[in-house]
Design goal:
6 helices; elongated; single chain
């Protein structure tokens, strides 16, 4: 895998990192059910961001695992966001499965806006 792929996944994690929340034991990420899932997506991206690119086999395995985890979480996110965002989440899922991380980032624009509105930031 290339550094460009790593950069794409890193972009996903950075953009979602603002939803990673703090403090409140009842709703540590915000009151919306989507917030913990958005934080989980950010952590998934971070696992690839910190992967060793000098070992292509290990990096590829890390990327594959991260994509599987990202897609699983995004499918749960689809039911937690307002109906108007579900098509965006579907596009995120399709793009991530195809390793088109820039497309996943573009599809996420309105989801990011929603997250900034309803989720607590760090």
């Amino acid at each position: 895998m290339s550094r460009a792929v790593l950069a794409g996944v890193a972009l996903i994690s950075v953009a979602l990192a603002g939803c990673s929340g703090s403090g409140n034991a009842i709703h540590p990420f915000g009151a919306a059910p989507a917030c913990p899932l958005l934080a989980q997506l950010a952590r998934t991206g971070e696992s690839v961001e910190h992967a060793d690119v000098s070992d292509p086999d290990t990096f590829d395995a890390t990327l594959r695992s991260a994509v599987v985890s990202y897609v699983r979480t995004a499918k749960r996110l689809r039911t937690a966001v307002p109906a108007r965002l579900r098509t965006d989440v579907d596009r995120m899922i399709s793009a991530a499965q195809a390793h088109r991380f820039t497309d996943a980032e573009s599809a996420r624009s309105d989801v990011d806006t929603y997250a900034r509105t309803v989720c607590k930031s760090i």
